[in-house]
Each structure stands twice: as C-alpha cells, then as structure tokens.
C-alpha cells in the first residue's frame, strides 16, 4: 500500500494512493476504449494501493465497477459514430455472457498456474501474427456474406473469449478484437466497437456477482469510474477519428504489456 493514513473507513486508501488510482483509472479507460486491456493497468494499481487486509474479491469488484462505466461510455461514443451489425453483435454478446458465466463457475477448479503459460504462448502468437500481417485489419473487408455464417462464428468467438474472461481475464478486449479481425475480416476500428459491447456484457455479469455479495468498495469504485469514463470518452473519440491504423498500434503496445505481465507471472509461479 502507498504510505499514509487511510482517508476513512468507507475509502480505505491514503491520499497518495487515491491520486495514483484515479490516474491509473483514467489511463486504463483510455486504453480500454481504444483496443481493450485497461485492466492490465487498473487492477495492478488496485492491488498495490489498497491495504493488504482488504479481501481480494473487494479489489476485483471495485475494478469491475470502474471498468463497467468506462466501457459503457466508450461504447456509447462508438455506437454514435460506427454502424454495427446485429447479426454479429447479438450472438457475440450472448456467447460472451454464457462463456463468462461458465468460466467463472469453473475458475475455482482450474489452477491458475496451468492457464498462465498457455495464455502467454497464445498472446505471443497473436502479436507475431499481427506484426507479420501489417495490412490486416486496416481495411474493413468482411469475409462472410451469409447471416448464418457470421452469426455462428460470432457466437463461437463470444463463447471462447467470454470463457477466458470468466476463468482468467487479462487482455479479454484484445482477444475479442483480434478474433473479430482475423476470423470475420473486420477492420480494427469496427472490431473494437463490437469488442466493447461484448466486454461490457462480461463485466456486467461479473459485477452482478460481486454486487450481490457486497464485495465492492463503492466510494472508491465510483471515484475511479468517473476517471475511467473520462479516459474512455477521450480514447473512443481518438480511435474513431484516427482509424484502424491507430487502433492497430495501440493493440500491439497493449499485447506487449500483456506478454510482459504473463511472462512475469509465469516466472514467479515456477520459481516460488
């Protein structure tokens, strides 16, 4: 925890920690709006800044509360500027909710130390694939004309990534983006709007669980949510103005951060 007395029982962090968390929430909202993966910034900040005696579910619930509102604001900006196809979006969202629910239910039975190295290899492969195909996702060129072909592929993407989000989580938005780009031929920008709404669904499912159990630091979560919304609003506007090329660059940077984090987690778990 960052040094200093806590502000109050209902806001159990120091002033210095609160400032750090608000900045982290703003940056996370920006990253999440552009390409997903803001949790890579916000969640570690919460782990560091919140006192050790606060139970882990409260940290996760507070993170979800902030992320939900940030993703909601970014989705609103995207939907005002970019047209979505319901034939893709509906099965994507339904699959994401079902997958997230299933993943969360199974998460207690699957050791994290088994999953982390597997995900690390997958993320490295995605990063290399994106680098080796510099034109991929820069143009919006859907590969499938038939509604049924789009729908079942979108549903499968939602189920797969939603399951990952429920069972592990880091980089969920990035996985949504790369699969929509790679499998369906969407541009990075068009993929991002669909990824945002799918990610909003998985966040809502998790937030409902934490909320029912009262595992949210409400005041801190709402303060961070305000900054996350601001960052998300700015990020979504920048992405829609600058296009798929800009989103692709942020996507690769986010993947790089995710690779470093997962590599570190893997080293720690095999050396401890």
UniProtKB/TrEMBL annotation:
The chain crosses the membrane at residues 7-31, 58-79, 86-108, 114-132, 147-167, 173-192, 204-226, 246-264. It is a multi-pass membrane protein. It is found in: Cell membrane. Keywords: Cell membrane, Membrane, Transmembrane, Transmembrane helix, Transport. Its main location: membrane. It comes from the Bacteria. GO terms for cellular component: plasma membrane. Belongs to the 4-toluene sulfonate uptake permease (TSUP) (TC 2.A.102) family. This is Probable membrane transporter protein. It comes from Microbacterium testaceum (Aureobacterium testaceum).
